[in-house]
Amino acid sequence: MADEVRANAKAFRLENTITGLVSVPLLVITSDDGLAPAAKALVAGIEAKGGKKIARKPDRARKRDHYVGSPVYTSKMISSHFQDHYERGL
User: Fold this and answer.
1) Residue 11 sits in which domain range?
2) Which residue in 1, 17, 32, 42 has the fewest CB atoms around it within 10 Å?
3) What angle do CA 66, 86, 74 make, to 5 degrees?
4) How far apart are CA 45 and CA 39, in angstroms?
5) 54: β partners
6) In a 10 Å sphere around its CB, with 0-12 CB exposed, 13-18 middle and 19+ buried, how is residue 46 labelled?
């Protein structure tokens, strides 16, 4: 599997999925671990192609062992995101 990933690294890049993600509701959770710029670039690419079903939520966790915050908080955030999209008919 690792050989396949290395051999197809360019094809497997996340930005190659932008066209397919334009119509998909997304919840983008970022942290202060240095990866937020890549997530922001992905969101910008989706929005540039007309994607509007994106909610952004920065994770306030400051410790690396709390990468996405508490599971309960994350679960509630995801539920409220998709409930909002459902109510708005997105």
Assistant:
1) 2-87
2) 1
3) 5
4) 10
5) 26
6) buried
pLDDT tens digits, 55-87? 777 766 555 555 555 666 667 767 776 666 566
56/59 Cα distance (integer angstroms): 10
CA distance 75 to 69: 10
**Residue 18: C-alpha distances to residues 1, 3, 36, 48 (Å):** 24, 25, 17, 10
Mean pLDDT of all residues in 34-47? 86
Number of structural domains the chain divides into: 1
Beta-strand ranges (E) seen in the chain are 26-30, 54-58
